[in-house]
Amino acid sequence: MTSSNSVAIIGAGIAGLSCATALQNAGAEVTLFEKSRGVSGRLSTRVTDYWQCDHGAQYFTARDSLFHDEVQRWIDHAVAQEWQPLLKVFDGYTFLKKDNDSNTTRYVGYPKNNAPAKFLAKELHVVSETTVIGIHKQAGKWLINGMEHGIYPGRFDDVILAIPAPQAGTLLKNTTSDLLHICNAVIMRPCFALMLQYDYTIPCQFDGLFIQAGLLSWVARDSAKPGRKVASSRSSDVWVLHATAEWSALHVNDDRERIAQIMLSEFNHLLMVDASIQASAHALIAPKSQSLHRWLYADAEKYLTDICHYDTSQRIGICGDWTNGGKVQGAWLSGLHLAKQLITEHK
Ligand SMILES: Cc1cc2nc3c(=O)[nH]c(=O)nc-3n(C[C@H](O)[C@H](O)[C@H](O)COP(=O)(O)OP(=O)(O)OC[C@H]3O[C@@H](n4cnc5c(N)ncnc54)[C@H](O)[C@@H]3O)c2cc1C
After folding, report:
1. Are residues 195 and 254 in the same domain?
2. Handedness of CA 327, 227, 192, 87 (dihedral sign)
3. Distance 247 CA to ligand 1 centre (A)
4. Which residues have a Cβ under 8 Å from the Cβ of 169 and sit 6 or more positions away?
5. pLDDT tens, 155-204?
6. Could you identify the atom of ligand 1 that is nearest to the CA of residue 170?
7. Ligand 1 atom closest to Cα of residue 36
8. Residues 177 and 80 in one domain
9. Are residues 239 and 143 in the same domain?
10. Residue 127 sits in the same domain as residue 142
11. Ligand 1 atom 29 nearest Cα
């Protein structure tokens, strides 16, 4: 590819950033469009004056050698670290040790989960706070229409949709690309994430818990991750609770306060099963502050394993976790492989 190849990438999550980095390194002129203020998508962090909390992806693993090398690069640049949490499984009655876990290495962004994405974005041209609502072809070039600022002044040879399937489908509707059918075949599910800040340390026996019964699927002590900022009190704890996809879907439009109340009450019940908590009165102390986030497209009911797709005639590509088995690793690899495909096509 040469600098005469201009590419628009919609979505500055880990897939879009990985795709952009590889294309730019190959010589293309890349512009990323992101609807939020910051990059990182679902690998992100809520930050307040007093605490921070990773409310999307909790950690990532690197089983693929290319992604492993990339994670090592992030570690070398001090934007990721290994996380060794005390993990348990709750089966509805008791806390169990997590089986077959000794070979799993977990990583987190350092000092926040959005750090690797910010690191990648430093080298890239990101047009933020721009929600793309239309892509149109004019005289063989793509035009990008943003909700906030209208038609972007640049013209692009290729457009890459690095966004969840339903959002990609919406943008493909007014094109003639067959990629629309692929997007329409994938159902993405919501997830409520409740962040809780306590001014004491909850004396339970786990930092992360996989839950197999009830409306929560995962809870974690976010403040146990490396480098996390907590309130000035040294004993402060920050927790994140994730609701199951099924429960989140059932209550997706319910009153947010009610959702938070129900999730907190479930967490308190769960804590009361923990022997260390039973021995103390602490579990009854309410969090000092809390915040609820609704992920509308948290994961896919069934992920594709096609890695990515490129429509050569229309010059549109799609990538993201949902085209490549899910997770941060899947998203990063999907973006990389789509970039490689474009580089090969337009040598
Ligand atoms: C609650 C939760 C828990 C998770 N836990 C884990 C975990 O523990 N481990 C793991 O590996 N993975 C986990 N994941 C999954 C992981 O976060 C994703 O697989 C990965 O981050 C997806 O990256 P992506 O780039 O494909 O998509 P995204 O991160 O969704 O990026 C898409 C980007 O596009 C932007 N965008 C969307 N539409 C538009 C538009 N029209 N115009 C402009 N911008 C747009 C979005 O704002 C976003 O920044 C979790 C996800 C959630 C939500």
Report:
1. yes
2. positive
3. 20
4. 180, 183, 184
5. 999 999 999 999 999 999 989 999 999 999 999 999 999 999 998 888 88
6. 41
7. 47
8. no
9. no
10. yes
11. 41
